[in-house]
Amino acid sequence: MALDTDTVRRIARLARIYIPEEDLEPLAGELSNIIGWVEQLAEVDTDGVEPMTSVVEITPEQREDVVNDGGYRDRVLANAPDTADGFFTVPKVIE
Amino acid sequence: MTATTTDTAPDHLSGHVTTRIGHNQKDLVEGATGPWEVIIGLEVHAQVTSEAKLFSGASTAFGAAPNSQVSLVDAGMPGMLPVINGECVRQAVRTGLGLGAQINLRSVFDRKNFFYPDMPQGYQISQFTQPIVGEGRITVDLPDGESFEVGIERLHLEQDAGKSIHDQHPQKTYIDLNRSGVALMEIVSRPDLRSAEEAAAYLSKLRSILRYLGTCDGDMSQGSMRADVNVSVRRPGEELGTRCEIKNVNSLRFVRQAIDYEARRQIDILEDGGEIDQETRLFDANRGETRSMRSKEEAHDYRYFPDPDLLPVVLEQSLVDALKVGLPELPDAKKARFIDAYELSAYDAGVLVAERETAEYFEAVVDPEGAKRDPKLAANWVTAELFGRLNAADLDIAGSPVAAAQLGGLIDLIADNTISGRIAKDVFAAMFDSGKDAGDIVAEKGLKQITDSGAIEALIDQLIADNPQQAEQYRGGNTKVAGWFTGQAMKATQGQANPQMVNQILKDKLGG
């Protein structure tokens, strides 16, 4: 499958990755190659095969409904570029 | 075909297939060019009642200091892994059972990818193609006593986002992640609703069922229940029109307003020869109107894929069966029982069962062990006098100053003729204000009914002697004057004379 530049621009925008206009064309080529390589998997006949969700047969662990985490605001905010009064702050986003 | 996956839900997930046939003439909206039918479907986000969040051990309690209930999982820190809260799964199953819905023994969590500042992971963990609960159905009652069925498309579990606060700073938005990761149930109805009133009634009924089940507290003012409202219009009987989705409407009143505004807006566009753009809109409560959320235009490519951090949820049928056995009596069953066992009208029964607490209060009044009281009388006291005073005082039934046993005591005093129904209202007012028992108030204020026939006879003799003209009128055939005499007798005794005895004695004396 081949990706065109419009698709790459759209994917980049959705992922919030800045890509200069002149890089779109080469990137489309590289991505198309990667997808083409992975697409070889489609040659395997998987009719009637359930999707594998884990390499080992395990029942997923479930958490008890008890409060045993949180309560460390300063740790949560530690890496934030900007905070105020215990809040994260970001440039104004409002409809 | 692009590398990005599905833009919108496949047809069977879109919630846009109505199961309702026909229409009510009264629900049609008259346009300049003829009648229109309004088609409404609701996606309700109901916060799951749980102590901890869906995938972390942080608290869900409302109103805590900002970011004080956030784990590193909820903050989207790299390398943190979600572990599902088993109680949230059980709550979703209970809700599904309460909605008479299919429970899917295997369900899958997917990532819904989009960016918003209050969603630190960059994706919401939700369920897309394999939700935990499938199709169900609920019966909705309208105020006029009519009822209709609404199809439930699905119910799935997902994470809530954090909260953005825009009014703290001129250039900044403040973010609190306390709500981030709290479990939500998204309950999607079929587009089976045909008017703002029906939508409000559906939401009320759903809220009532969730509150009975104890799976969501239904508190819309705290954001525990929010609705996305899908509205389209069509000519009666024709194909469904293009719909608009109004996001995050958080009260019954706003749901009604948003639907009425949006239906009118769409009708005006269509009648002017225009077309409806399928889009997401916002309800502006201050202006009572909906408007386009343009920034969301490109955000609809969610690129769902199964969350590799989470294995599918696999349920044992035995767990589902056990949860089913543990369900409480739900509003429909309770209403039927109230009509049957207590011989109440459908209307009274409906009012009493709408809230579980009211139904329990009523049953404590009418049928405590060994003292079965008149259900109709009890229903009247609860729905008229008690509700009236609770509303005026802005209290709910849990905060009632008059306990069920105390109201029962008052009804006993009426039943054994200690006080009249009229005096009982005064006694009730005093009970409500003081919290005292009816018997104490009757004794304190000397309100006991006069049932001494000698005293009443003497009083009436006096009244007849003092008012010969009225007595003459009665004897001349104007029996209506008896009512005037009764009024005088009640006035003279401050309402304490037994009205039946007064009437009987009057009749005997005047007639003789």
If you had to describe this structure to a student in words, what would you say it looks like?
The complex is a heterodimer of chains A (95) and B (512). Chain A has 95 residues and is mostly helical. Chain A has a domain at 5-42. Chain A contains 3 helices and 2 strands, in the order αααββ. A two-stranded antiparallel ribbon of chain A has the order 1-2. The mean pLDDT of chain A is 91. Chain B has 512 residues and is α+β, with helices and mostly antiparallel strands. Chain B has helices spanning 86-98, 196-213, 252-271, 317-325, 331-342, 346-353, 356-366, 375-392, 404-415, 421-434, 438-445, 453-466, 468-475, 481-492, 499-511; strands at residues 29-31, 34-47, 106-107, 110-113, 123-126, 136-141, 147-159, 163-165, 172-176, 183-189, 225-234, 244-249, 280-284, 289-292, 305-306, 313-314. In chain B, the strands form 4 sheets. In chain B, strands 1, 2, 6, 7, 10, 11, 12, 13 and 14 form a 9-stranded mixed sheet that branches. In chain B, a hairpin with a 5-residue loop joins β6 and β7 (147-159). In chain B, α5 crosses α6 and α14 (481-492) packs across α15 (499-511). The radius of gyration of chain B is 30 Å and the shape is elongated. The termini of chain B are far apart. The model of chain B is unreliable at 1-15 (pLDDT under 50). The chains are: A mainly alpha (95), B alpha+beta (512). β2 (87-91) of chain A pairs antiparallel with β9 of chain B, so a sheet runs across the interface.
Task: From the structure above, extract its key features.
heterodimer; A: about 100 residues; mainly alpha; two-stranded antiparallel ribbon; 2 strands; about 5% strand; B: about 500 residues; alpha+beta; Arc Repressor Mutant, subunit A; 3 domains; nine-stranded mixed sheet; three-stranded antiparallel sheet; 15 helices; elongated; disordered N terminus
**Strand count of chain B:** 16
Provide mean pLDDT of chain A, rounded: 91
C-alpha end-to-end distance of chain A: 38 Å
Shape descriptor of chain B: elongated
Number of helices of chain A: 3
The multimeric state of the shown protein is heterodimer
* Biggest protein-protein contact in the assembly: A-B, 44 and 59 residues
Describe the biggest sheet of chain B? 9 strands, mixed
Task: Work out the helicity level of chain B.
Answer: 25-40%
Strand order of the largest sheet of chain A: 1-2
Determine the strand fraction of chain B and express it as a percent band. Answer: 15-25%
